[in-house]
Amino acid sequence: EVQLVESGGGLVQPGGSLRLSCAASGFTFETYSMNWVRQAPGKGLEWISYISSSKVSIYYADSVKGRFTISRDNPKNSLFLHMNSLRVEDTALYYCVRAEWFYDTSYPDFWGQGTLVTVSS
Amino acid sequence: QSVLTQPPSVSEAPHQRVTISCSGSSSNIENNGVNWYQQLPGKAPKLLIYYDDLRPSGVSDRFSGSKSGTSASLAISGLQSEDEADYYCATWDDKLSGFVFGPGTTVTVL
After folding, report:
1. Chain B interface, Cβ < 8 Å to A
2. What is the mean pLDDT of residues A81-86?
3. Are B71 and B21 in contact (CB under 8 A)?
4. CA–CA gap between residue A63 and residue A61 (Å, rounded)
5. Residue B99: what are its φ and ψ, rounded to 5°?
6. Please, which residues have CB within 8 angstroms of residue B44's CB and are 6 or more apart in sequence?
């Protein structure tokens, strides 16, 4: 059974830092690209970052570029999101999402349950 | 503000059919596969359709996707109360070099 379990969320002050983790199981993690997607309270989904299986390709949404860093540890089946210079508008539920491939197209397919990040003074 | 456009809400009676539209541009929908996600209240999103019109294993055939040019659609036939949820379209955007989601459409079963 595929499982993605996020952790590391919590309350942090504006300007602070946080590191999110995602533990993957039930599939061959090292062969899958991964994403982080967030959802502010009562709002829609916002993709924020992608990392390929080999870490060669990494992309960020403009809203987090320069502040967030995505990384992964394939032997430990883990995905990370390092978040710096946090802002109130970064408050959201952060989802770890596996990416599947179909021909030349990658798409998010399986989602974890999310970890809540609250940025407030 | 999303580069994809969806109606905020649609509603229909049980057993009827609803269609949700998703409008984009040549940098996203027209040149990349469109995916649809269902988010039930308080739950994580679930993939319903990928690559425009393909259903993952286990997804009901009451859900179908289509695409033409810069627009895509999700149809739900035989509407049931359990279909009440938020539905999001999503695709890659070549200009933004990132994945984009539509703003979401809330489906209400009357």
Report:
1. 2, 32-33, 35, 37, 39, 44-47, 50-51, 54, 56, 86, 88, 90, 92, 96-104
2. 98
3. yes
4. 5
5. -85, 140
6. A95, A111, A112, A113, A114
Task: Kindly tell me if the per-residue pLDDT of A2 is higher than 80.
Answer: yes
Q: Which residues contact A64 (CB under 8 A, 6 or more apart)?
A: A48, A49, A83, A90
A76 burial via Cβ count (<10 Å: 0-12, 13-18, 19+): exposed
Q: What average pLDDT does the segment A62-79 reach?
A: 98
Q: Is the CB of A112 less than 8 angstroms away from the CB of B2?
A: no
CA distance B30 to B52: 10
Q: What is the pLDDT of residue B1?
A: 77
What's the rounded Cα separation, in Å, for the pair A81 and A21? 7
- What number is the average pLDDT over the span A114-120? 98
Burial class (CB in 10 A: 0-12, 13-18, 19+), B21: middle
For residues B104 and B39, give the distance between their C-alpha atoms in angstroms, rounded to a whole number: 9
> Average per-residue pLDDT in chain A?
96
| CB spacing of B88 vs A45 below 8 angstroms | yes
Q: Tell me the backbone φ, ψ of residue B49, rounded to 5 degrees.
A: -140, 140
Neighbours of B99 (CB within 10 A): 27
Intervals of chain B under pLDDT 70: none
Name the phi and psi angles at A69, rounded to 5.
Answer: -135, 125
Are B65 and B53 within 8 A, CB to CB? yes
